[in-house]
Design goal:
Shape: globular
Strand order of the largest sheet: 5-6-4-1-7-8
Radius of gyration: 22 Å
Largest sheet: 6 strands, parallel
Number of strands: 17
Bound molecules: 3-phosphoglyceric acid
CATH topology of the largest domain: Rossmann fold
Helix content: 25-40%
CATH superfamily of the largest domain: Phosphoglycerate kinase, N-terminal domain
CATH class of the largest domain: Alpha Beta
Structural class: alpha/beta
CATH architecture of the largest domain: 3-Layer(aba) Sandwich
Number of domains: 2
Distance between the termini: 36 Å
Length: about 400
């Protein structure tokens, strides 16, 4: 059973949250107005259809809220990291998912090719209508936070709502440029994220254990530095661990890693709070085997953590009073290298059912727990990966700063 704060009845966080300082959409007068709403659409698509995700559930809740209040909703977001238009990364499947869950005929998809047409369409909207814009990142101007592009977006609507927590660490046009021009509100999900993550940000409960994996290393290193100060133990897995092995001078064979981040990793391996895997699963054309991190042949790649490393995480999480997990610790796309990640998902879920408080998050992590069907077992599931880590690590989120500055 979940409490209104987003925590379970066993680990309710209501008493510890500090109110955030951003205007909430709950206080906005949206009736009859065009509302430009930035949401998280960055979800996987398989066989042409989106895979169910907490990000989509959050979007549905936000749109329903605005519709019930007779707003005219213009939804915008991104998928992936395209270099120009790319049909595989269109937001069309997201629109189709939404259309299947809202009253017929209310949701429509709109490309962004002809701005004049777009303006005509938004002016023809009726109360309760929803327009879904094509992937904003098809335009380089989005990631450049281009002022002309931001103004074009802002001119489409009378109000702006940001409910895209997972992207709030990006200073892009739809996240920062638009609210700098027209102010705005935080959405329902953004508000819940800020309240729940505040507990972790304050690192108020101990022992505090962090598990970080995944491949998007650059957006996580800054948070890791912060965790090495605030947490009692920081476990790493996935491609991040490989980068640390390289920093230790170990042979990483054919493993995926980020060469540019090795210098930062070298600084961090000095910390006695950092815990690297003690055994790893290796893949080569001859098959799979488990070995010590240093014991790698040139044709082998690290694809998962081994049983001893999982046990070390289990021991630490069982004793933790607060924990954060972000990112798979192995290659989850392959059934033979996802055992470590699945084990971590279950260990963390079991601990969430006690008095400890835990947060899990990140696009790939959400995909893992959805696939395992255990998303309901966690205290709080954050839709953010890099954003979540940045925020709980004490960092500043540009999208929130923009709202603070221009409210
Ligand atoms: C995410 O999946 O974490 C968000 O969509 C942000 O994506 P990005 O790292 O490509 O900016």
């Amino acid at each position: 059973m979940h409490c209104a704060c987003g925590g379970t009845a066993r680990a309710c966080i209501c008493k510890t949250i500090e109110r955030h300082m951003y205007p909430s959409v709950k206080n906005a007068d949206v009736a009859g107005r065009r509302v430009l709403c930035r949401v998280d659409m960055d979800v996987p698509v398989r066989d042409g259809a989106v895979v169910s995700s907490p990000r989509l559930q959050a979007m549905l809740e936000m749109v329903s809220f605005l519709q019930e209040r007779r707003a005219r909703v213009i939804l915008m977001g991104h998928r992936g990291r395209p270099n120009g238009p790319d049909a595989a990364l269109s937001t069309k499947p997201v629109c189709a998912w939404l259309a299947g869950r809202l009253p017929k005929g209310m949701v429509r998809f709109l490309p962004f090719d002809d701005y004049g047409v777009l303006v005509e369409e938004v002016h023809a909207m009726a109360n309760g209508d929803v327009l879904v814009l094509e992937n904003l990142r098809f335009h380089p101007a989005e990631e450049q936070n281009d002022s002309v592009f931001a103004k074009q977006l802002a001119d489409l609507a009378q109000l702006y709502v940001n409910d895209a927590f997972a992207t709030s660490h990006r200073a892009h046009a739809s996240m920062v440029g638009v609210p700098m021009l027209m102010g705005g509100y935080i959405g329902l999900h953004m508000e819940r994220e800020l309240e729940a993550l505040q507990v972790v940000r304050e690192a108020s409960r101990r022992p505090f254990v962090v598990i970080i994996g995944g491949a998007k290393i650059s957006s996580k290193l800054e948070a890791m530095e912060a965790f090495l100060q605030s947490a009692d133990r920081v476990f790493v897995g996935g491609a991040i661990a490989t980068t640390f092995f390289a920093a230790q001078g170990l042979n990483v064979g054919a493993s995926f890693m980020m060469k540019e981040e090795v210098t930062d990793a070298k600084r961090m391996i000095e910390s006695d709070r950092l815990q690297l895997p003690t055994d790893v699963v290796l893949k080569s054309r001859h098959g799979y085997r488990t070995a010590s991190p240093g014991d790698l042949r040139d044709n082998e790649e690290i694809v998962d953590i081994g049983v001893s490393s999982v046990r070390a995480i289990q021991d630490a999480v069982q004793k933790a009073d607060m924990f954060v997990w972000n990112g798979p610790v192995g290659v989850v796309e392959d059934a033979r290298s996802r055992a470590g990640t699945d084990a971590v998902a279950h260990i963390v879920a079991r601990r969430s059912r006690t008095k400890a408080f835990g947060v899990v998050g990140g696009g790939d992590t959400l995909d893992v727990i959805e696939t395992l069907g255990i998303a309901d077992l966690y205290d709080f599931v954050s839709t953010g990966g890099g954003a979540m880590l940045k925020y709980v690590g004490g960092g500043v989120l540009p999208a929130l700063e923009a709202l603070k500055k221009n409210t």
